[in-house]
Amino acid sequence: MARIGSFLIILYLTYALTLCICDDDESNYGGDKGNLFPGFYRSSCPRAEEIVRSVVAKAVARETRMAASLMRLHFHDCFVQGCDGSLLLDTSGSIVTEKNSNPNSRSARGFEVVDEIKAALENECPNTVSCADALTLAARDSSVLTGGPSWMVPLGRRDSTSASLSGSNNNIPAPNNTFNTIVTRFNNQGLDLTDVVALSGSHTIGFSRCTSFRQRLYNQSGNGSPDRTLEQSYAANLRQRCPRSGGDQNLSELDINSAGRFDNSYFKNLIENMGLLNSDEVLFSSNEQSRELVKKYAEDQEEFFEQFAESMIKMGNISPLTGSSGEIRKNCRKINNS
């Protein structure tokens, strides 16, 4: 583990030194997202991105899994009320936390890292950088620190003063959803099938709980039979870690080949019928268009990386609060003056 940690720190330093200085003028991010642009904090908090990268790098060096956890927080945040940091709020006063929803309960993690990021930002430039932007940057850095693509992050989001438990329960795709349900839930956020497949590629890192894939092993269609699209030897290995009852929190790698490295092997696994979640495997087994995208990304990692970056920017632009809407929280877990 020490060797992995040292490698990640070196990768971070390389990334920090070679991060391209691109044209980040607001005019390049026009349209209805014109209030978001990469240089938003250039004057008000010029070290903001450096601070976020540093905290995330240390967290990922301590535990490689944290990269996937932070990316998942960003995804689950953006699918509920937009990318507004609502997921980060604890229950308080009129706020009912999204952390207790079915998709998040006992699985969403990384909140302490976000707290650490926010504390460092507040120390550098108080009341300036939103929790929503901090989480969006952390997701990008998590990709880079595990070997994945980088991208310029449009910034300028503000934080919500509300949360939606019902939105979290109803908007976020579930591991056992059908292909059509998954696509519909992405479409509802303005994301298309290409985004579905590319963003699902984030499952090249991280782990999932037994309770999220047990159905595939024992009772896929409600008739007591396993999912026949699951490769048999892989299924047998999973059953050793995920019994028919009990062991709900037991973890298995989302990508059996490289759970700690961001690459395109996830898509190669799908072709071999070795996707862990039902929501993974249906991308290959249920639709011709998505199947062709899986094949393309399995063959061409650069193509996947380019589309993943584009889709992450698109997801990060879902319904942001800008201007005078929302607030800049001092503490990501609670609204100001609460």
Could you list some keywords that capture this structure?
single chain, 338 residues, mainly alpha, Peroxidase, domain 1, two-stranded antiparallel ribbon, 14 helices, 2 strands, heme
Topology:
Elements: H1 2-18, H2 48-62, H3 66-78, H4 111-124, H5 131-145, H6 165-171, H7 179-187, H8 193-200, E1 207-209, H9 210-218, H10 232-241, E2 251-253, H11 265-271, H12 278-285, H13 288-299, H14 301-316
Antiparallel strand pairs: 1-2
Number of strands: 2
Biggest sheet details: 2 strands, antiparallel
- Average pLDDT score: 91
Structural class: mainly alpha
- Sequence of secondary-structure elements: HHHHHHHHEHHEHHHH
The neighbouring-strand order within the major sheet is: 1-2
Short summary:
By secondary structure, the protein is mostly helical. The chain contains 14 helices and two strands; from the N terminus they run H-H-H-H-H-H-H-H-E-H-H-E-H-H-H-H.
